Amino acid sequence: MSSSSNGNGTPILELSDVHTYYGSIHALKGISIEVHDGEIVTLLGANGAGKSTTLRSINGLNRPRQGKISFQGRDITTVAAHEIVKRGIAQSPEGRRLFPRMSVIENLEMGAFQRSDRSEIRGDMDRVFELFPRLHERRNQKAGTMSGGEQQMCAIGRALMARPKLLLLDEPSLGLAPIFVERIFDIIKQINDQGTSILLVEQNALMALDAADRGYVLETGRIVLADKAAALKTNEQVRKTYLGET
Amino acid sequence: MAADASVPTLANRLQRPSVVGLLGVVVVGGAAALLLKNLTVAPSRFFEVTLIGLTTGCVYALVALGYTLVYGILELINFAHGDVFMLGGMFTITYSTHFFGLHHGQGPATILIVFATLVLAMLSCGLINATIEFIAYRPLRGAPRLAPLITAIGVSFIIQDIGLAWKGPNYITAPDVFPHSRVFSFHGVDYGWNKLIVVVITIPVLLGLLWLVQQTRQGKAMRATAQDKDAAAIMGINVNRTISFTFLIAGALAGAAGLCYSLYVTTVRFDQGFQLGLIAFTAAVLGGIGNLPGAVLGAVLIGLIQTWNEGLPWHMPGSDWTQSIVFSILILILVFRPEGLLGERTPEGG
């Protein structure tokens, strides 16, 4: 589906046997995932399967107790969350997590917080506004007062402002009108075409598998299936459980 | 997210015209009438007391801002803050008299010494406040909210004991270095240099703080951390360092307040921070806790209410009742307008 390469050479992101606890709950029970340069990889699974915890393990908010995460060949398992974004991983988190009392522009500026190339930040913001013209209209509005779709755009735009090599997207279509969902997925593909690898967590499995190169299926903290997206779409179990077919 | 309509705020409850609203009008109206009567009975006294109130309000503002900054970022009422202010007063006396040999009648050198003392007192209190956070609050970052609150009360007692051990149980006096001669006269009332100096120190500090929070990179990190710590972290903001910085700034403000207070009132005692801290905390709540301009507004109002009550001649309750009045205001605000005068009506308090 995507124009990008399909996993040659060493992966840009590699999780091996990662165990993460959420409080006292053993949320990830030894998962191993790879994302290669230029890929879109999707994580499927029911609520509570551990998708968001996987992302939180990668971005340093929820450190694994066991296992190893490496990014571009370097171990980032114990790197602090605020350092990870400097390595090139940005996230549009679950629930968007915008700064509600900051304007759209300020939120986008926060996305570029760790960058020092001030002169280029302005241009990147213009590109985000090109991608999401609606954000430009709302640029001076407080983020907390916008609609869900607008907030989602702002969250993705904010992540892009970090100029990430790997973009983590957590449920970008959650709570959006169908027309917005298609737009968001078009944009995800556009971002990917420009060379950003993407790890996508989605409850809309059909859209996710359409966009992705490969996918993993998570069940209660374990990976139960891993395959090319096209193969997953025709997999009996996936069709029953996640594509709603009988 | 931010302002869900489903959160039943008191504002909604107050929509219906109620006995409570009527009562509020009666209380505020009664107070206004009392002030007006005092104004007509003794106008010059009224203006004099009002000027003193504004000066006192400035000191409260510096302390209240510390409460509000820390609350904004950690949702913690740092009860030890008033005691850091008390230490600021003690540092002022130690630095100015023991280090710099400050005494009455040194002329222009006084200004230099006071400025150097100000810088040192702000630095000392800032570092102490950041250390308190590091030792006492940071290990409790994930704990239920009651834990750091009780810890803060504990730290408050510890600092008082340190003050007691350091300077003893009695009032210690600061040199009365500022001339009481008048800066200007208004309706036959003199405003002395010793009062003006408080305003002269407070205003630039307040403006500097607003600039810091609104315009600088560090200020943006503070605001982002206050609004969403996890989101701030994945933006590349070092959340712990930002919290330390916030405590540093809050402590420095308390140090500045300690200097103003000790040179203006000229006495300091180990337990005065607790009471003044509670008053400043009330001011922060009155203005809307977490809201910087609100803290200043609340502080000036509380300063005025206090001095009006204590200084006006015509049938005011008097200083015996100051505490009761101030804390009645706290209770009324918490019950009827918990978001404060300027606070936003959001679940997280603005």
Description:
- The complex is a heterodimer of chains A (246) and B (350).
- Chain A has 246 residues and is an alpha/beta fold.
- Chain A folds into two domains: 9-88 and 165-246, 3-Layer(aba) Sandwich (Rossmann fold); 97-163, no CATH class.
- In chain A, 37% of the residues lie in helices and 25% in strands.
- Chain A has ten helices and ten strands.
- In chain A, the strands form two sheets. A six-stranded mixed β-sheet of chain A has the order 6-7-8-3-9-10, with helices on both faces.
- In chain A, helix 3 (104-111) packs parallel to helix 6 (148-160).
- The longest helix of chain A has 16 residues, at 178-193.
- Chain A starts with 12 loop residues before the first strand and ends in a 5-residue tail after the last helix.
- Chain B has 13 helices and four strands.
- In chain B, 71% of the residues lie in helices and 4% in strands.
- In chain B, the strands form two sheets. Chain B has a two-stranded antiparallel ribbon. A two-stranded antiparallel sheet of chain B has the order 2-3.
- Chain B has helices at residues 10-13, 19-41, 43-74, 81-99, 109-137, 146-167, 193-215, 217-227, 229-234, 239-265, 272-287, 292-311, 322-336, and strands at residues 172-173, 182-186, 189-192, 267-268.
- Chain B has 350 residues and is mostly helical.
- Chain B has a domain at 55-273.
- In chain B, strand 2 (182-186) and strand 3 (189-192) form a beta hairpin.
- Chains A and B meet through helix 2 and helix 3 of A and helix 8 and helix 9 of B.
